[in-house]
Amino acid sequence: MIELDHVTKRYGDAAVVDDVSLTVERGTIMVIVGTSGSGKSTLLRMINRLVAPTKGRILIDGRDTAGLPEHDLRRGIGYAIQGHGLFPHRTVAENIATVPRLLKWEKDRVDERIDALLAAFALEPGLFRDKYPHQLSGGEQQRVGVARALAADPAVLLMDEPFGALDPIIRDKAQEDLLAVQRRLGTTVVLVTHDMDEAFRLGHRVAVMADGRVRQVGTPADLLTRPADAFVSRLTGTNDRALKLLSVRPVGSVVSPGPADGPPLPETASLRDALSALLWSGARALPVADASGRPLGRVTLDAVLASGRVG
């Protein structure tokens, strides 16, 4: 869906982004993580040409973005930032309708889209449509900001530290909402963060940046089990790597045949959740079921512990 081909951004003699090549598959979440000054936000902004590359090409759905009018490019890409950026003088509904109205959607279509997005983010349309941003909590404002970015059904959503200003409990809920909506809509997401736990929770793949370069790209499990260098190893965390590994692997990856007593675990639950359930119940095994409740087998304590071993 998105291809960055040897992309560089220079300011004078300094390369803020230095010869980066990266591919983002359609319908996935790519998280770009790195310390302050690593070039991650500049890289993100080059995708919708808020920043122009000095060298290299960026293609979206096979089309070179350099050949597209900027306003057409940006109307087809959702953009959500830290602090939400809502228009304070517009209601929630008016904020969400911003791009659809620019695209001259019919009023009925706009209203239907507003209500659908509010419902998707657990914001009752009847209660929230006519509120102003100052009447919302921080988490509600952030969810409206993401809803606005998705309003015109963009194929691509760019997110720059979208949850960084939220407290941990609200941030956790906002991340859950994003995952649920992304699965429902199939949107391709590129998200920038400095928080490695957030990267592991949200990313199908994670790109680690430092000094303008991508040091490693892979699944969360790849980065935890096979860090490319000492920097990636430090960033992913050396002390609690086993627990992090359990957090990014699903129960479905270690299901074995056979019965077990107790309430079934969903196959999408993390192995860390399974370990907690096993230790809490005192059982050596628990049943596993799919989303429809169909039994798939069981997960054992031994299998969970074996999956947490690194190396």
The tally of strands reads 13
Coarse structural class: alpha/beta
Distance between the termini: 33 Å
- Strand and helix order: EEEHEEHEHHHHHEHEHEEHHHEHEEH
What count of helical segments does DSSP give?
14
- The value of Rg in angstroms is 21 Å
Q: Sheet with the most strands?
A: 6 strands, mixed
Unreliable runs = none
What is the average per-residue confidence, as pLDDT, rounded to a whole number?
Answer: 89
User: What percentage of the residues does DSSP assign to strands (E)?
Assistant: 15-25%
Order of strands in the sheet with most strands: 6-7-8-3-9-10
Helix content bin = 25-40%
The quaternary organization reads as single chain
Silhouette:
globular
Identify the notable features of this structure and list them briefly.
alpha/beta; 6-stranded mixed beta sheet; 4-stranded antiparallel beta sheet; 13 strands
Give a written overview of the molecule.
This protein has 14 helices and 13 strands. The chain has helices at residues 40-47, 70-75, 92-96, 98-102, 107-120, 125-128, 138-150, 168-185, 196-202, 220-225, 230-236, 241-248, 271-281, 301-307, and strands at 2-11, 14-24, 29-34, 55-60, 63-64, 77-81, 156-160, 188-193, 205-210, 213-218, 265-266, 285-289, 295-300. The strands form 3 sheets. The protein has a 6-stranded mixed sheet, with helices on both faces. The protein has a 4-stranded antiparallel sheet with strand order 2-1-4-5, covered by helices on one side. The chain has a 3-stranded mixed sheet with strand order 11-12-13. Strand 9 and strand 10 (213-218) form a beta hairpin. Helix 7 (138-150) runs parallel beside helix 8 (168-185) and helix 13 (271-281) packs antiparallel against helix 14 (301-307).
